[in-house]
Prior knowledge:
The protein has about 325 residues and is mainly β.
Amino acid sequence: MTTADSTPAGLVDLASARVGGIAVLANDEFFAEKENLLKPGRGIFVPDKYTDRGKWMDGWETRRRRTPGNDWCIIQLGLRGIIHKIDIDTNHFLGNHPPFASVDALSMSEQLDVSAVEKLSWSSILEKSALNPGSQNLFAITNDETWTHVRLNIFPDGGVARLRVYGVVVPDWSKLKPGELVDLAAVENGGVALACSDMFFSSMNNLIMPGRAENMGDGWETKRRRGPGHDWIILKLGRAGAIRKVEVDTNHFKGNYPDMCSIEGCAGPGASTDQLASVRWSEILPKTKLQADTRHFFERELSSTDNSTHIRLNIYPDGGVSRLRVWGTSA
Length: 331
């Protein structure tokens, strides 16, 4: 696999800018802007690039602290959820990384008032922990509460390239009307990519991201298959439901789109990826011809299904799909 997406299977980066994450406020960002924390990738290094404030760095970097205290940055999660892992990535920060960091979290239903941040009641989810320079510093989070904001604290100062907040999305289903069609696979509705046969060129997580793909790299693409068989991806739906409409979008894939696809569903609430191998899968969409760079909508072609918890998209024999939408009614 050559894709740079290191999101753990079954989890979502709740803080990513692509799902609406925002770097709301930092006490200092003298050398490099806080917004860089939430960008894709791990950050780059350009040896001879400088600004009027010093070396250009692809991350969030504060000035050298000459007074007591520590620096911090508040992130509004793009998707509220339960946090399971945090990656404080100090890539390319070698003589200027923070030696320690901690993370606090907050749950709010209203907009955060930046003028009153000192009055907020934060909860610690990661105690002060040592960081390594130029590294992905991964931490497991055991707290099972639902959060909307996090605060990254660095001690005493320095630079962090990226912050990843991996977790499970907790949608607000109370706003859903009975019988209303909703994209049960969408990341914002709790859908996650669990496993795939291959994602050599681009990540399986792209398949259920918001909006249409920006380019070919913003989809799911497998390597060229030279042997028998076909490629596939398994998605866990955000909520069990009856599938009524499907979209398979090959946007940007022209000489490398799959020749055909099919879709299966199963009812396996709480099943692990290994357990899904022995679950009975039912055909939702039969093997169907695809076209290049096209949005394919299927409705009348679908077999009636109820209470599907997982979807398997099969592509024949290989190739790229930019987005998959699975509209259904919640069980």
